[in-house]
Write a structure and sequence with these properties.
Blueprint (H helix, E strand, L loop, with lengths): L6 E9 L8 H23 L4 H13 L20 E7 L4 E8 L5 H11 L4 E3 H10 L13 H13 L30 E6 L5 E7 L20 E3 L5 E6 L1 H7 L1 H12 L3 H16 L3 E6 L5 E5 L3 E8 L2 E8 L4
Parallel strand pairs: 3-4
Antiparallel strand pairs: 1-5, 1-11, 2-3, 2-6, 5-6, 7-8, 8-9, 9-10, 11-12
The structure holds aspartic acid (ASP).
The site of aspartic acid has 14 residues, from strand 8.
Length: 327
């Protein structure tokens, strides 16, 4: 039943994440980081902040965390560079902002929000987007900020697998962070995303990613593509995805879930399950989604062995999960 209660769901990526893969200290570190980000978003909602502010705050927290493939912990391209993608959408206005292939903003999600609120555009890419970030005074960082040793090792492994040369390490690389060694390689991928419903009943979605390890040719996935990896509309739901972006793009996956809710009247969980377990699986794609509806329904669904995830609501305690067999 619709109420004034707020709710928030987040993910930190999906993929090959089996119990046997994570050491106990890795498991603990991930759960701690997921809980911290969920609490950051919940604090905004508890203080009667907007869903938009909540999703941005929670994604920023995940972007600053080296464990996840977004912001600081982003994976490297085949050239040993960082190319970040992010999108944010306001379900109340259908305002949207997205960036792709950016390399200097510490928090790509805030740049996406600046695109939405401070430019006449919805989607900026590459050097132009980086210039826009500088001009708007968003915090810029050196390439070394994004260096996480385990991500570099994952790049080396992937390039060797493809028979390609390993590029030199970026200059000015920061000393290895002890927590960074805990980062788990979910099979080249990873992403962070947050959806929220505020006390007014507005919903918002935000997604941020480094894409896939050793990506070539300016590859962009679904995360910054409005309707594919990110979508929010008060008429239906807010959705953020994680997984094989090429499939999410081909299915307009996030928007597809919203369309089933709006036009077919499906319950949120049923819409997420239908699109992920049936449509995505049938096409041969892997991944997952999180979602909230303006009436407070929360949902997640994934067809991978795990998805880092958390949910919290005004009337529901924080729940953090990683593996498939967890509720
Ligand atoms: N969806 C992301 C991409 O394709 C990766 C992921 O979520 O694992 O860029």
């Amino acid at each position: 039943m619709p109420g004034s209660a707020w709710s928030l769901v987040l993910h930190g990526g999906s993929g090959v994440i089996d119990r046997a893969d994570l050491r106990p200290e890795q498991d603990r570190a991930y759960r701690h980081a997921l809980a911290g980000a969920a609490e950051t978003g919940a604090a905004v909602l508890r203080a009667h902040g907007s869903a938009l502010d909540a999703v941005e705050a929670a994604v920023r927290k995940l972007e600053d965390e080296p464990l996840f493939n977004a912001g600081r912990g982003a994976v490297f391209t085949d050239e040993g560079k960082i190319e970040l993608d992010a999108a944010i959408m306001d379900g109340a206005t259908l305002g949207a902002g997205a960036v792709a292939g950016i390399s200097a903003a510490r928090n790509p999600i805030s740049l996406a929000r600046a695109v939405m609120e401070q430019s006449p555009h919805a989607f900026l890419i590459g050097a132009g987007a980086d210039h826009f970030a500088q001009a708007r005074g968003l915090e810029q960082v050196e390439p070394g900020y994004f260096f996480v040793e385990s991500r570099w090792r994952a790049l080396e492994k992937q390039l060797r697998r493809e028979g390609l040369p390993v590029p030199p390490r970026p200059s000015g690389v920061a000393a290895d962070h002890p927590v960074a060694a805990l980062a788990h390689d979910e099979g080249k991928r990873g992403t962070v995303g947050v959806v929220a419903r505020d006390a007014k009943g507005d919903v918002a979605a935000a997604t941020s990613t480094g894409g896939i390890t050793a990506k070539h040719w300016g590859r962009v996935g679904d995360s910054p593509v409005i309707g594919a990896g990110t979508y929010a509309a008060n008429a239906s739901a807010a959705v953020s995805g994680t997984g094989e972006g090429e499939y999410f793009i081909r299915l307009s996956l996030a928007h597809r879930i919203c369309a089933l809710v709006e036009f077919e009247g499906l319950a949120l969980q049923a819409a997420c399950d239908r699109v992920v377990q049936q449509d995505l699986s049938r096409l041969g794609g892997h991944g997952g989604v999180i979602a909230v509806a303006p009436d407070g329904q929360m949902a997640w669904s994934f067809n991978t062995s795990g998805m880092y995830r958390a949910r919290i609501a005004e009337d529901e305690p924080l729940a953090v999960a990683i593996y498939k067999d967890e509720p």
